[in-house]
Amino acid sequence: MTYEEWLIERAKLVGAQADIQSVIEAIDGSFAGVSWSPVSGPVFSNNGLTVAATAAHLVPANVFVPVSERNCEFVITRRGQWGFLGVGLIRSTQALSPAPISLATVPPGVWLYRSDGEKAHAGASEVVGAGFGDGAVVSMRLDANGDLYFGVNGQMFASPLFTGITGDVSPCVIFFGPNDSPVVTGRFTGLQYSTGPLWELP
Questions:
Q1: What's the CA gap between 103 and 106, in Å, rounded?
Q2: Degrees to nearest 5, angle at CA 186 with 63 and 13
Q3: Where are the domains of the chain?
Q4: In the chain, which stretches have pLDDT less than 70?
Q5: How many whole angstroms separate alpha carbon 89 and alpha carbon 104?
Q6: Phi/psi zone of residue 57: left (φ > 0), alpha (ψ -120 to 50 degrees), beta?
Q7: Distance from CA of residue 159 to its chain's centroid?
Q8: Which of 104, 107, 113 has its CA nearest to residue 160?
Q9: Cβ proximity of 103 and 119 under 8 Å
Q10: Alpha helices in the chain (DSSP H)
Q11: Sign of CA dihedral 3, 182, 178, 155
Q12: What's the CATH fold of domain 36-187?
């Protein structure tokens, strides 16, 4: 399904009859209901879709869903000169505070692909790719088996980086520090590449 087809189907669901375009504008982007959760500390903009670090932060999206086919993207506006960041999933039961302050303290309810090319979960990490920098688009796909796939600029890893994830989960970003003010924008709706449901509100 293309982005335009998805928007039209959404418009039909909300009863659009006379003015499809106005309904499309009303439900597109952040108006579809998913954005970053406004936790204390980071700076938010773009209707809650863009988050900038001011310290070490763990920021989830504002909706948790049971493990199922889901897709989203993370646009890396600025990775930061020395700092690292990671994008991935967080389980609903994972505490948000205190946020991890080092690369070695990724909590057990978080699964990340980091900008240094390592996957990280529950205090363990492993190099799996080249990582990503400024301007990169990191894709994330969760399947119904709880297998979590990542890709950078349209090139997906052939195998999942994590398997067997369960529970209610949400996209997340972790900033390991504020160096050079890293900035990430979430794309949770309207993705043309999607092969399954988007990470929108159920």
A1: 7
A2: 55
A3: 1-32, 36-187
A4: 1-32, 81-83, 97-104, 178-179, 192-195, 202
A5: 17
A6: beta
A7: 19
A8: 113
A9: no
A10: 3-13, 20-27
A11: positive
A12: Jelly Rolls (2.60.120)
